[in-house]
Structures are given as C-alpha cells and as structure tokens.
Design goal:
The protein is α/β, with parallel strands linked by helices. The chain is built from 11 helices and 9 strands.
Length: 294
C-alpha cells in the first residue's frame, strides 16, 4: 500500500506506539518521531526521524519535512504544554503538512474541571486557527489507569464521588486513530470524536471488578479535595502536577467523564472493550494487586 507520508509523534508511547505498529503493517510510508530516537520502535518500512522535542521548532520542522499528515499525541503534562503544542503545530504548518489528527481529551473546554483538559482545548483552538485540515480524537480515561492507580493496599482513592467514567482501552484508541489516518478522503475533516468505552461506571464499580479479577477485596475510598492533596503530598510533585491528578477525579464527580460515544465501533468496525474484558486480556495490569501466592 502506497500513500501519503504519515508522521507519528509519541511513537515510543502507549498510544503512538500502537498506532505506529498498525500503520507500518499497511506498508504505507510512516515516519516516527520522538524526543529520543533510541526509544522508538523498529518497525518494517518505518523511518525514524531525528530528535524532535515539541518545543524545538527547528527540530520539528526537520522531522516533519515532507509529511502529509501529522498524528499529534499530546506532550507529557507540564506547565508549558500548550506552548509546546503550538510550536509543534506551527512547525507542521510551516513545512506544508496538510492534515493534523490530534489526540485530545474528553470534555476538553477552557473551564474544564480537569486542568490538563484545558490544555487540550487551547491546543484544539490553535489548530483550528491555522486553517490546516484537522480531526480531534477526545479520549476518555484509560482503562489501564484504573488498576494502575489502585495501591498495593487494595485501595483506589480519589475525590470522584459517585460520578461515572467511560474509560477506554489504548487498543481501541489506536484502532480508531489508524482508521482516521488511513482514510485519505475528507470525511473526517473538522470532526471531533469522543473515544469512550461501552459503559460508564463508578470507581466503586471498578473496584468490584478488580476484586473479581484479583480474588481479594479492592475498595474505592472517596476523598475530599483536601484529603486528596494530603494523600498525594508524599510524592513531592509540583503543584500543577498534583492539581492535575486531583482534578482528574473531580472531573468524574462533576459528570464530565460520563459521556458515551459510538465512535470506536463506528470507526473500527468492532465493539469497544469494557473493563472486564480489558482486565481479562491484561492480567499484568493488576499483578501488583495480587496477594503473595496468587
């Protein structure tokens, strides 16, 4: 299969890496970008770009030169993430990239409860202003985050109240993104797709599912905002980072993560994974929760 060159950022990560693998299997031209090329996957037919930090406009222009489409995975959270995104987008436009598919976040808005969700909205707004063709993929929480955020003490804690979250699997995001990227038409231009799982559940219900998988009692402990900041203080993280952690739960409590969408099955042709299926297929995700001897 021959087609326009697709540049994939974050190709060493959970989303970008999966997308890179799927695109490489088609035989089309793919260029992989990352801060450290040594960490990029070696895939048949894929070309590795030189180091390309988002905030380095010159490096991004070199890495993107000749690309038709940019798959832009959001940068690691940071105090200037929007600035880094803007630099990367402007570099793409400067070298003639015609299309950007951006990985955003569910309920992105200028006043989103989740502070990092605001970054995504401002990035989307900048992409719209460039005039380039675009598609936004607004992911919900990752299913993988639920066991990951559960401590070895068997407690999942946070200020999510009784709110619901429509968490989605990395694999489904990658399948949906690949479908959009490989469609050479204009049917996805200007579209915003919410990528969610098939159900919205409370964290208490997630704990019950984790209990079934692990054979031990996993509990959800709701926290107040003050308790959430206190319980995370020992990590020694910067204020903006802790605020992102805490407000991600508060966005659930506010009802901003409960939306359900049929975008995954519509784009991919297969159902989105639910939490039970994800855990069954990924036992390593909760291995830290198993009791000795299990």
């Amino acid at each position: 299969m021959i087609g326009p060159l697709i540049a994939v950022t974050g190709a060493s990560g959970a989303v970008g890496g999966r997308v890179a693998e799927r695109l490489a299997r088609t035989g089309g031209p793919v260029r992989l970008l990352g801060r450290d090329p040594a960490r990029l996957p070696r895939l048949p037919g894929a070309v590795l770009a030189p180091p390309a930090p988002y905030g380095d406009g010159e490096a991004m222009r070199r890495a993107l030169d000749g690309a038709h489409t940019l798959f832009l995975v959001s940068a690691h959270e940071g105090p200037d993430r929007v600035g880094e995104h803007i630099t990367a987008v402007d570099a793409a436009v400067a070298v003639g990239v015609e299309r950007i598919v951006y990985v955003s976040f569910l309920a992105a808005a200028p006043a989103a409860t989740f502070t990092f969700g605001r970054d995504h909205w401002h990035t989307e707004a900048h992409i719209r202003m460039t005039g380039v063709r675009y598609t936004f993929l607004r992911d919900s929480w990752y299913l993988a985050a639920l066991p990951a955020m559960t401590g070895t003490d068997g407690i999942l804690r946070g200020p999510a109240g009784e709110g619901r979250v429509s968490a989605v699997a990395h694999e489904d995001i990658a399948d949906a993104a690949s479908a959009v990227l490989l469609d050479g038409g204009v049917g996805h231009d200007g579209a915003t797709y919410d990528l969610t799982g098939p159900e919205a559940f409370t964290l208490a219900e997630a704990a019950q599912e984790l209990s079934r998988c692990t054979g031990r009692t996993i509990r959800y402990v709701p926290e107040t905002r003050e308790e959430a900041y206190f319980s995370r203080a020992h990590y020694g993280a910067e204020d903006w980072e802790v605020a992102g952690w805490v407000t991600s739960y508060e966005a659930i409590a506010a009802g901003e993560m409960a939306a359900l969408s049929d975008a995954v099955p519509t784009l991919t042709g297969h159902p989105a994974k639910n939490l039970a299926t994800y855990l069954r297929e990924n036992p390593d995700s909760y291995r830290h929760l198993l009791l000795p001897g299990d």
